[in-house]
Amino acid sequence: MRISKKFYYSFFLLSLALFGLQFFEFKNFIFKDSEILWLRLNYSSKSLTENWIGLDRLPEDTVNTLIRIEDKRFFTHKGYSLKDIHSSIFKFILFHRKLRGASTITQQLARTLFLTREKTLDRKIKEIRISVDLEKEISKKEILEYYINTVYWGHGNYGLHAAALYYFQTPPEELDISQIRSLIDILKKPDNYDIEDFPENS
């Protein structure tokens, strides 16, 4: 009977949270024109630098593997995934697991560029709002390319170029699938890994 009550109580809280999120209005842009201009100019200038990796320079398998593991709904969602948020909250309420695995690639980019990594509800809401605005203002290709080049890979390494050289001493264009998978695993807890964790470097 306890399990039944717990389930119904959890389901009620979960439904209430999702109901509120579905009707949350994202009409007002939180970006100023200057911020969008900065983002576009920064994208244009960085794409010309030596360390900036354009999607066309990466093997298709590399990009597809990243999307499949990190955000399989990347090309269909509008910045956030209700289904993933639903699953994360459900596991948190029923099984007391940590709230994780619900951030899309766009949300991770929003956090990297504009927010801190603090785990608060206020920060999460801001993250979702910024993600929605990003999806309206720039293309999926721009979001994905910006993410690959700015996401944190631990030990002061930002972007795939720095991570590939640090962990494997290999240009990102030459990474094999197993190395890509290893780098994607690092994204979950960037500072928990070091070069010694990879046999290829021993």
Amino- and carboxy-terminal Cα gap = 55 Å
Q: Output the CATH topology.
A: Penicillin binding protein transpeptidase fold
CATH architecture grouping: Orthogonal Bundle
pLDDT below 50 for ≥5 consecutive residues: which ranges?
Answer: 25-30
Give the total of domains.
1
Top CATH class: Mainly Alpha
Task: Please give the largest β-sheet.
Answer: none
How would you state the average pLDDT, rounded?
75
Helical fraction: 55-70%
Secondary structure category: mainly alpha
Task: Give the topology string: H per helix, E per strand.
Answer: HHHHHHHHH
Residue share in β-strands: under 5%
3D shape: globular
CATH H-level name... which superfamily? Biosynthetic peptidoglycan transglycosylase-like
Q: Please count the beta strands (DSSP E, at least 2 residues each).
A: 0
Number of helices: 9
Cα radius of gyration in angstroms: 19 Å
Structure description:
- With 202 residues, the chain is an all-alpha fold.
- The chain has one domain: Biosynthetic peptidoglycan transglycosylase-like (Penicillin binding protein transpeptidase fold, Orthogonal Bundle).
- Helix content is 59%, strand content 0%.
- It has helices at residues 2-22, 33-46, 60-70, 82-95, 105-114, 121-137, 140-150, 160-168, 177-188.
- The radius of gyration is 19 Å and the shape is globular.
- Mean pLDDT is 75; it is low at 25-30.
